[in-house]
Write a structure and sequence with these properties.
By secondary structure, the protein is an alpha+beta fold. It has a domain of about 100 residues: Alpha-Beta Plaits. The protein is about 35% helix and about 35% strand. Strand 2 and strand 3 form a beta hairpin. Helix 1 runs antiparallel to helix 2.
């Protein structure tokens, strides 16, 4: 069966329990149509780049789906009907990504404060400080 990644955005004023109910409903639809949801990730409430139907934030959820195209069509049809779902996107993929998605890894990286390898920059060493405009002659004299 084809593999899909599916993300939907739900209104910000919904409770987490209501979002879980929407997720359970979509999971049942996939199951009834002969597919299965391999992975389900709730990304939380995130800020949107631009307003969608007067919402500045949205609950975001990712599904990795292994299902026939008819199941995806039915899920998308139900999402169009549901007023609580702002947007959705389904992408067919060759294989599902193992482990956490990029959104989940991003939060792990931010917690560590790690900027990664900066190999393109050499060692700064003990270079003298150049006086900046407005520092005056005093700053330049103390550096020499």
């Amino acid at each position: 069966m084809p593999l899909y990644e599916h993300v939907y955005l739900a209104r910000q004023d919904l409770s987490a329990q209501q979002v879980e109910e929407i997720t359970a409903n979509l999971t049942n639809i996939v199951g009834q149509n002969g597919g299965k949801i391999v992975k389900n990730e709730y990304w939380g409430v995130k800020s949107l780049t631009y307003r969608i139907n007067k919402n500045r934030k949205a609950h975001m959820t990712l599904f990795n789906i292994d299902a026939p195209p008819a199941a995806i069509n039915e899920v998308e049809r139900q999402e169009r009907i549901n007023e609580d779902i702002l947007r959705y996107l389904t992408v067919r993929v060759e294989e599902h990504e193992e482990g956490p998605s990029a959104m989940m890894r991003k939060s792990d990286r931010d917690d560590r404060g790690d900027r990664g390898d900066r190999g393109d920059r050499g060692d700064r060493g003990d270079r003298p400080r150049r006086p900046r405009e407005g520092d005056g002659e005093e700053a330049a004299a103390t550096e020499e």
